[in-house]
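Milestone M4 deliverable, item 7.
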Amino acid sequence: MSIDWALRHVDDDLARTWIANGWWTDDTLGALLHRGLRIDGDQPFVVRSAVRPARVTHAEVLRDALSLAAGLRERGVGAGDVVGFQLPNWVEAAHVFYAATFLGAVIMPVVHFYGTKELGYILRRTPPKAFVTFDAFGPARGTSTLLDCGAPLPDLVAVVGDDPAGFEPIDAWYGEPLDAPVSVDPSSPALVAYTSGTTSDPKGVIHTHRTIGFEVRQLGSMQPAKAPPPITGAPVGHGIGMLAALLIPAVQGKPIHLVDVWDPGAVLRHMAAEGLTSGGGATFFLLSLLDHPDFDPDVHLPLMQFVGMGGASVPMAVADRAADLGISIVRMYGSTEHPSITGASHDDPFDKKARTDGHPLAGVEIRLDDDGEIFSRGPDCFAGYTDPALTANAFEDGWYRTEDVGVLDGDGWLTITDRKKDIIIRGGENISAVEVENVLLHIDGVLECAVVAAPDARLGEHACAFVRGRAPSLADVQAAMAEAGLAKQKWPEEIREVDDFPRTASGKVQKYVLRTQLREEAT
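Output delivered:
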């Protein structure tokens, strides 16, 4: 199934510089993963799950992924085809991810909790040739989501679980293992990652083998050498979980530990029993461990000396609390489009690594326009969106328009102060304000609404809906969101009724005023 990706052009001189510095290489993602999983085949790959637990090795995962790649090839999947999956943090997600890369196919992970609205748009925007979903995971039914999403079914569908609902069970897709990864053009698409953004529909972010390969090497080089292996609870369908579990440790030949449900008590038990670390990523993960009654400073703090924070805002109070406990915090800044723009190391001064969002990383350049908006470019910046119109609007003379606002100190360290883009980042997951507003406006009594980010001590941010007219109850809002098929993580957690909104001279709602009001209330 041929797709015209309409990738953006990178300046030839810039591309030559990135190649000369070794930031862009000819390695395909499949080659990187294949080589990495073979480094030490005895390294563990562990999934802690009440539904589908697994305790295998890298060698076994590699064998099964090559076997699945062979089965996909027998079914007509080849280089350039899109292979999608919507799975929890199970070992089969790794099989599908790696198998697709070994074939030179374009892997398209979908967050497992996305509902019919999100999945329907994704499958219509980027139709996969093959798609893998799940039968049941808690109250969620992946097969039902697929059947009810309104998009044409992919040619090939397989299901992980005991009830395939008329589709093929994924076990039928495993064949005699492929010998080696297929060679493809390293500048061609390798990954499509869908993320909520300023539009009411998810944005499909395209990364090539070169851009995602550089990101894996760059972010991997920043991992503390002496830190214990981490447990990852972020979904592998999301950029943070994907990099932390399926990509970086696989390429580096290091242990992989996953949980499919974030249960802080259980994570603390696993940490103590097996000498693992956790708490990185969005602030929610760290705070849920520190606040749990089973947290034992004598047992757990020695395992949590180094924590990297990103994917959502990091309140000063969190950094100070971590420092008081002897935890070294570093803040990172990036997005699915440009994953690692700024960052720091644990050897940097506290005021730099914990109170700013870092300095530009290797190969990355940033500039601020007159109103502080951040523009970036670098070897890990994406190749474009699946919607070419969005790509055209996202770049200015080769620079990516982040729609975030920041300031640089005298040493070149960046601090994010606000955002222009209309999103809320809740626990590392992007929520489109426009998407939520479109649902609210269909509720009786709502004349006008504005959804903005409210500070959240645990999640970083949550969605707060300001409503002009008669504000609905939270229960009514939740019912409307469920009916619209929006994932629960996107539902507003706070409703405020207002007589009117702060506005520009042209009548546009000034959302930054609402955000400032919420921040001032929180402090």
